[in-house]
Amino acid sequence: METTKKDIRALTKEQLREFFVAQGDQEFRGNQVYEWLWSKGAHKFEDMTNISKDTRQMLQDHFVINHIEVDQMQRSNDGTVKNAVRLHDGLIVESVLIPTSKRTTACVSSQVGCSLDCKFCATSRLKRMRNLNPDEIFDQVVAIDKESKLYFNRPLSNIVFMGMGEPLMNYNNVLKAIEKITSPEGLGMSPKRIIVSTSGVPKMIKKMADDEVKFGLAVSLHSAIDEVRTSIMPFNATFPLADLREALEYWYAKTKNTITYEYVVWEGINDSKKDVEALIQFCKFAPSKVNLIEYNPIDDGQFQQASNAAIEMYISMLEASNITVTVRRSRGKDIDAACGQLANKS
Ligand code: SF4
């Protein structure tokens, strides 16, 4: 009977060193193999040319190296790149490279499908199949970093966890992936260039604060009125705004990091003066800024982008209250790569 081999990349460096000692080899062999796996991105044991043939065979007998494969890559007219990424078990997730004049940002997925059910989001229609492993998250970033160098002659500058899935529902693996991305053996990126975007899971926001994470926090808010928010993000009934507010106050008290609220304005849903007033009140609980995001329709027309007049009202009222507001135009709409459109359609 064949036993299932373990993914060697699930082992820490320490565990790899211990493995080699248990095999009667030297500890440093673990360092060498770790370097092949993470710094040099080896996909096969036979690529590890400074490791003896016998040792490579022994590794082959015990482990597999699970790597993602970019199954399909699409490029938008505006330069945005969308990868459909095949995981070792055949499941697919999507990740996106968003270029601007100054930066290239990777938008990565944390789950296959999503545990939550935001009504405006294409991913919510996919059943949540499983959480991504740390190496699967890391590999998405590496793939986009390569594309950034290939197409834009510069390495990836920023990462947002805003692809498929709710990152705080896969917290431990997201954290491990970020550790790897920021470590010298990984990509050596500054955590300040990484944003984890959540729909707002209060308990996990507090946990992030307790863990003293160094990356940024964004919250997909979309309404500061419980009734409205629950109608578009039904899990808000379980995690109401009062709980979210308390968690965000806790986050700021511990980290002193400003919070970004991601906010889409939809016609007839949250485009009234009352909605803006509620948002302004919510912004006062902890230092924050608002990112108004252009809406990308997903095919059934239930949600429509609000009028320019409504967007202008938001901007002027927020600015009059001294709240920083930015407007983010969508990228990659023609290839379904924009916010809320990731649904494995390619
Ligand atoms: S918006 Fe985010 S949390 Fe909500 S369903 Fe989509 S992927 Fe999940």
From TrEMBL:
Residues 100-334 form the Radical SAM core domain. Keywords: 4Fe-4S, Cytoplasm, Disulfide bond, Iron, Iron-sulfur, Metal-binding, Methyltransferase, rRNA processing, S-adenosyl-L-methionine, Transferase, tRNA processing. It is an enzyme of class 2 (transferase). It catalyses: adenosine(2503) in 23S rRNA + 2 reduced [2Fe-2S]-[ferredoxin] + 2 S-adenosyl-L-methionine = 2-methyladenosine(2503) in 23S rRNA + 5'-deoxyadenosine + L-methionine + 2 oxidized [2Fe-2S]-[ferredoxin] + S-adenosyl-L-homocysteine; adenosine(37) in tRNA + 2 reduced [2Fe-2S]-[ferredoxin] + 2 S-adenosyl-L-methionine = 2-methyladenosine(37) in tRNA + 5'-deoxyadenosine + L-methionine + 2 oxidized [2Fe-2S]-[ferredoxin] + S-adenosyl-L-homocysteine. This is Probable dual-specificity RNA methyltransferase RlmN. The gene is rlmN. CDD domains: Radical_SAM (cd01335). It is found in: Cytoplasm. The active site is at E94 (proton acceptor), C339 (s-methylcysteine intermediate). [4Fe-4S] cluster binds at C114, C118, C121.
